Amino acid sequence: MLEWLYVIFAYNPEMPMIFTRGAFWWFFAVVLAGYTLVYDKSNWRNAYLFLVSVFFYYKTAGLFFLLLLFSTVADYAIGLVMHRTAGKVRATWLWTSIALNLGVLGYFKYAYFFTESYNALFQSNLKPLNFLAHWSNGFVGTHFDIDTIILPIGISFYTFQKLSYVIDVYRKELEPVKNFLDFGFFVTFFPQLVAGPIVRAASFIPQMYQPYRLSEAEFGSALFLVLKGLLKKMLISDYISVNFVDRIFAHPSAYTGFEALMACYAYSLQVYCDFSGYTDIAIGLSLMMGFRLAPNFNEPHKAENVAEFWRRWHISLSNWLRDYLYIPLGGNRHGEWRTNFNIMATMLLGGLWHGASWNFVIWGGLNGLALLFYRYWRRVSPFKDDQRWWIMMASVFITFSFITFTRIFFRAESFDLALEMIQKLSGGIELALIPNIVAGYAGVFAILALGFFWQWMPAAWKEYGKAVFVESPIYAKAVVTAAVVFVVYQAISADMQPFIYFQF
């Protein structure tokens, strides 16, 4: 009995609670059972979901739940105090929150990056220190490693979420949340806590006080999203990752040019299915509990240019960067040069948000340059508004290929490996070897074909499939669910793959 209690309540860093583990679905079933007792009383519902969300984060990130609680209490208090002040005092509270949130994020996420960059520039030998471990060892007598700083899961997401709340309160676009349990629920809501989408307070907080509602059609849509997300993640993303992408990106020079090329395209499919699969599940689970989150992807690999791609990809982050960085910098209101600067600054910082390495800065910079190129190209393009099918297909292929190329820096473990991959690609494609390679990776190429067909099939086909599922009787939904669970179970790799965006 005690052993079972330990398994349930103790944090195990080797077994974090994520959507692809059976433990999460037992957790969700228990949460739903308790939810049936409180769902019709908003104050009890919000408090209950706050508590279970904190437990979820503890099971996912261990003692870092204390950091999450600390920053949540701080922003809750700042929001209330700032609402009652004006002028410079109000601005001081805003900058206090910004400094606190970005300071914590910067310390945990960028300490090594900035230290290594400083050491390389000034030939010094500074080393980051884990102050929390140092203080804990000194005051409590623990024995944590003070030389290693661990990145808390989801810190980039919940930091941006809290910042949007504080900024909106400062702008008087939002009334502060009066009840701490309500605010804690907004920050920690477990389906989207660790990998988004980044929820905006203006759209989510009003829902916390509305009566619970969920139609039969909405339940069908929610279940459809969850099943679709699991298939994307575990059937497509994980399979091509373990059996193809990871191997080639680890040692590009050991493979042919064709294998390197297909690994790049496969990674584009992998990262899309991984991240959009997570958000499909998050949105579906949220809807089952009566909360409606905005879509985070809109068929991004059908984009005909880079600007359109960024309107379709990771929409919650793109909108956040637009509203809280690009526009405050001046947007397009201060002339040509300033607009170009603001675009590049936004994309460079967006790249750095994704990861603490120069690879991510390069990735963001390449996308920024592409946005600037398209800004001028569309003014003179002879194909502007050309709806001929071959022009549109060519535009989609060029855009997808460029995005895929930039993701070499996104995926590669180091700058040297990124250059090694590019060098392998520039060496040419050994056409005679292609049949043997495809035969050798028959399962991988079959999954790639399925994945690319899925992402590029007409939207009307997808909507039709969803409508058929939503309108089907409950027993048919049960059969489909059982079939998906069976397929997903068969596809589980021995080495469980974490969601890619957990590292951000």
Question: Could you name the key traits of this structure?
Answer:
globular, 21 helices, 71% helix, single chain, mainly alpha, 504 residues
Element-level helix/strand string = HHHHHHHHHHHHHHHHHHHHH
- How many whole angstroms does the radius of gyration measure? 24 Å
Beta-strand segment tally: 0
Give the class from helix and strand content and strand pairing. mainly alpha
Q: What is the share of helical residues?
A: over 70%
* Residues in β-strands, percent: under 5%
Structure explained in plain terms:
There is one protein chain. The chain starts with a helix and ends in a 13-residue tail after the last helix. The chain has helices spanning 2-9, 22-38, 42-61, 64-83, 87-122, 131-139, 155-170, 180-188, 201-208, 216-250, 257-288, 306-312, 315-326, 335-354, 358-380, 389-411, 415-426, 434-440, 442-456, 459-471, 474-491. The longest helix has 36 residues, at 87-122. With 504 residues, it is an all-alpha fold. Helix content is 71%, strand content 0%. The mean pLDDT is 90.
Q: Layout of SSEs?
A:
Elements: H1 2-9, H2 22-38, H3 42-61, H4 64-83, H5 87-122, H6 131-139, H7 155-170, H8 180-188, H9 201-208, H10 216-250, H11 257-288, H12 306-312, H13 315-326, H14 335-354, H15 358-380, H16 389-411, H17 415-426, H18 434-440, H19 442-456, H20 459-471, H21 474-491
